[in-house]
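Bumping my old thread because nobody answered last time. Still need a sequence for this structure:
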């Protein structure tokens, strides 16, 4: 799946300059970098939420699913929130079981905790099959137990759907656990890209090395 080059400029300042690349179907690509490096801008543009400077289309991307950092919930039950993205109740039940939120199915979605809302939002997205999925910090509000459940479900979803999945994460440990490849963003640029273990263990550039040392990999 080819992602063309694109950029994003605010008030004559370029905050993101992406050179383009190929994403592999059936693989997870983690996006890492410091705050303000362009990760979420990249995710929003890929997800169609934010327009780039010049319009582009992902070659062969098909249906695109996007989960933002800040998840929304409507004033209806958790299960009904999930069913907004599909009507298969058995699938909704399986997703709630996988994320251990079945006991919350009748609780109003807008009264869930942050971590519960994130799990509900992940289940809602996975009610459909997409060719490209973008998850922006999907587990940031979850505790470790819920994070591991979510990671297991993400891996299963990619395996079953064959989608290309972009995972924006602040957790280098998470990238190491589930990502096949990693992109490192620095000051709005894709500075380094490669296989997860290779990039995290032996980065090519001093900027990447400094970032990884600071964050404890």
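Sorry it took so long. Here it is:
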């Amino acid at each position: 799946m080819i992602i063309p080059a694109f950029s994003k400029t605010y008030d004559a300042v370029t905050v993101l300059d992406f050179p383009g690349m190929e994403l592999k179907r059936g693989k997870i690509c983690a996006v890492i970098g410091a705050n303000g490096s362009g990760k979420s801008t990249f995710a929003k543009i890929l997800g169609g939420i934010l327009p780039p400077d010049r319009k582009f289309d992902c070659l062969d991307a098909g249906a695109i699913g996007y989960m933002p950092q800040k998840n929304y919930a409507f004033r209806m039950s958790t299960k009904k929130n999930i069913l907004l993205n599909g009507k298969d109740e058995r699938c909704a039940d399986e997703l709630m079981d996988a994320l251990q939120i079945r006991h919350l199915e009748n609780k109003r979605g807008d009264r869930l905790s942050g971590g519960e809302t994130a799990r509900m939002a992940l289940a809602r997205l996975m009610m459909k099959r997409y060719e490209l999925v973008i998850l922006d910090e999907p587990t940031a509000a979850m505790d470790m137990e819920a994070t591991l459940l979510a990671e297991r479900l993400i891996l299963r979803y990619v395996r079953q759907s064959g989608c290309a999945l972009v995972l924006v994460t602040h957790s280098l440990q998470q990238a190491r656990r589930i990502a096949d490849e990693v992109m490192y963003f620095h000051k709005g640029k894709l500075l380094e890209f490669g296989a997860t273990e290779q990039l995290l263990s032996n980065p090519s550039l001093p900027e990447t090395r400094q970032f990884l040392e600071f964050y404890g990999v």
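DSSP finds eight helices and ten strands in the chain. Let me know if any region looks off to you.
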